[in-house]
Amino acid sequence: MAQNKLLLLFVRNPELGKVKTRLAASVGPEKALEIYLHLLQHTRDVTLPLPMHKLVYYTNAIDTNDFWPNDKYEKRVQPPGDLGEKMQAAFAAAFDEGYASVVIIGSDCLQLTDKIILDAYQKLEKSDVVIGPALDGGYYLLGMNRLHPRLFQNKHWSTERVFPETIHDIQELHLSYALLPHLSDIDHIEDLDGEDWL
Fold this sequence. Notes:
Layout: E1 2-11, H1 21-27, H2 29-47, E2 52-58, E3 74-77, H3 83-96, E4 101-105, H4 114-123, E5 129-133, E6 139-144, H5 162-172, E7 177-179
Parallel strand pairs: 1-2, 1-4, 2-3, 5-7
Antiparallel strand pairs: 4-6, 5-6
Helix pairs in contact: 1-2
């Protein structure tokens, strides 16, 4: 077990009408929930065999009887605030608890693999920050070796400006950084092109 490494997973409780709302506008809330459950299962399958400590942050309630095994994933409720405040608090808690390398992912990326996550930790051995850019202008992964609060502040969350704004702050702080492959998040009906499980 990589005792000093932590993987944070930010997920939504899978409730009808409360997940994939932008996607639901096109496919309906039932199909959106089905798609989100598929994304959660993919994220679990990718992360389950990884050697580092894993912590699932739920939006509003801890579910001890879901498909995140309790013996493999620690479980907490996300801190209050906007997405940046939530992530900053989660990273701050992780470093306060003694972790040396912390990576966060969501559950929206079907292209994410265990190899990409492992590569993120390898890149953190030589860089201050690692980031996985999403094709929509956000990012699907962010990792660092100590807390840099500015990376979570004054961002236009859920827009195409998140990744460039984050890179700008990284450069302004004179931090070294490494990029992972560009991948696609599933947020809109167009993102589902080529997916044969629908």
